Structure formats: structure tokens, C-alpha cells
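Let us work through a complete example step by step.
Step 1: write down the sequence.
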Amino acid sequence: MFIYVCDRVLDHEVDEIHEQEVGRRVFGRPADYDTSADNTVRVHASMLRKRVNQYFANEGLSEPVVIEIPRGNYAPVFHERAVKLAQPEPLPQPVEAAPPEPRRDWRFWLPAALAALFVAVSAFVQLHHQQRSRPLASEPTVRQFWSQVFQPSRTTDLVLGDATLALFEEQTGRQVALAEYFDRSYLNMADTWTTGTQVDPDRGKMLLLKRQTNYGEVALLGQITDTAHAEQSDTKVRFAREYSFRDIKSDNAVLLGNLASNPWVEPFQNRQTLRWKYDATRGAYYPVDNAADQEKYHTAPQTGQPAAGYSTVSLFPNMGGTGNVLIISGTGGTAMSGALGFLSDEHAMSQLRAQLNIAPNAPFPYFEALLCIGSRNSLPRDSSVLIVRRLHQ
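Step 2: predict the structure and record it as C-alpha cells.
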């Protein structure tokens, strides 16, 4: 929400941002939803306003520019922090003073100050603005692929995973089924699921009620949205807990995360041979290949060497057969970013097309692929395709 309202003011120079706009653009509410019956925006705005005020009163006390979110209007206000100048000590005798340094106009250094501020508040802002200047889908093979996910005049859902759900599952060893997640019945089962574990039942309930996602997934949104715009399409960011069967049946979608954090992967898993498993000892996920050696990619990094990451990419028809669903999972945010870079690189995608044995101008078939993301992750071609398989419709 903070990123969205700041972008609206800085990039689009708006003076007012209304509750209905935030509800629709940030929280995925319908365009005509009843704000009097749904107070989601007001609740989040109140929490955000407090956190922003706390930041500038504490960690951000030295920031030269202060951001405020006024009540009744969600457009943030940027203003220069008032600075108290210490009174000079009286001089014992007159001396020739140096010419005063011209006072800098705050409008001159505001962009630099804002950049520094945004890095301090959220590194994602800087990443987002860097990425938006370089559209992704600009080459034939890349455009062919993304045109199957983003279609003109059609909105694609970007579904973020539920990080607290994954954490609960990791600590209890309990897998929450999609049906339990969708009807919220899993919230009433925390007492049972924590029995015999080291998780306190009350803490488990509090954990499940939190609404958090992984930073690595959020950091991809700017790139994905720019790609959609290049295809004359639009995106709608959705949190996994707010998604529905109606959406997954009728919409195009990009699902971020694995089954643990994003239960909406479940309807497609019976067609996948590439899945993810959690190693409680190392506190990390690793890919398994159900068609071959499941533990082949479960290796510990060599001492002193950076570990390579893994990512899986799968393209499916949606549940209603009216669109397509792209699933991106990985060992972490860097691996998922590497997968997105791979899908946006003409050379890499041309190689993938050749491995799938499809004609240059033919659409991509439904497929799954396992990528090894190089530890440098500086170029998409640092990544390699370990497995690629067509999926039967």
C-alpha cells in the first residue's frame, strides 16, 4: 500500500487518492465494492500511518524529507524536515566572515533525498523504479511466451504467497489443504495441529492470523507488471488468502511460491513431477523430481562456496480452460528473481523453445522446467535448464 500511494503521487502527480481506488488496486476489491461494509483499506491505512510516523520519529529522525499520510486522503505528503540551527558563539573580536553559502532550494535536492529515504524505508522502491525503465517482453520468443500469460484488455492475477502459513506448516509438519485454506477451517484446527509440537497453540493461532508475504515475491511485482503493460494487459495483485476458485477458473494468473505458502498450487500438482520439499534441519526448501531421483538436488553447499539456487517454472491452463496459469517457485527470492530474468531473456527462452521442440512462431506448450540459478545470478544465461517436460492437456 505504501509503495502504491507513493508512486501515485511521485509518478502520476495526483493530489487525492480515495479509499475505493486503494481497495481496488492494492487489495483486489471489485471496482464498485461497498467501502462502508469493507473497512480493509481504513484498517491498513491506520496501521501504515502509525508505522510511518514512528519511523520518522525514531530510525528516520535524520531523514531530510518527511512523509506523512493525512487522514481522509491517502495521497502522501512530502515536506522538508525543519532543522533547528544552533546559535553561534559570540566572537571575541570582529572578523571578516566568509560569504554565506547560498541556501539550496529544497526542490533541487528533493529527488536525491527521496531516493535515500526510500532505500531506508524499503529497498523495494528503488528496485521497482530501476526495473520499470527496462521493459521485459521486447523480443520475439519472450513476447510469444508472455503473450500467453498477459492478453490485451484482460487482467492477470498476481497471487502472492502466505508466508505465515508456510512458517506454521514448517513448525508443525502439517500441510494445510486448499479446501481447508479456502473455507478458513484451518484456523480452528491450530490447537489440534500443534499437539505434540513445540509450537504454543495461542502463538500458532496468532501466526495464522497474520497477513504477510515474502519480500522476494513482492520484489518481482514491478517487473511482472511492466511486462503485462508491454502486452497491453493489466495486473491485479492478490494475497493468497483472498483468492477464490472462481478466480482460478476464469482468470489468467501468476502464482508465486510453492505449495506450502500458496495453496492455489494444489489443483495443478497432480500434473507436476517437479515439487518442493522442506528440510527442517537446514530450514530450507529443495526441489524433488518425482519422475527420477527425488533427492538428487538435496545437496549442502561446499564450505566457503555460495550455494546455487533452484527454481521451477510451470505453465498450465487455468481450471476452467479459459486462460493460462504460470507458477514460479524457488529456493528463495534470488532464485525466483533469476527465474523471472530467465523467462525475460531472448537467448535463454530461445534455448528453452528448442528443448521443447516447438516452431519459432508457435505458442509455448504447457510445460514444467527446473532451473539452476547461478550463485552470481548476474545474467539470465548464468542459469541453466536442468529438466524440461511437456505437460499433457
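Step 3: interpret the result. Confidence is low (pLDDT under 50) at residues 101-137.
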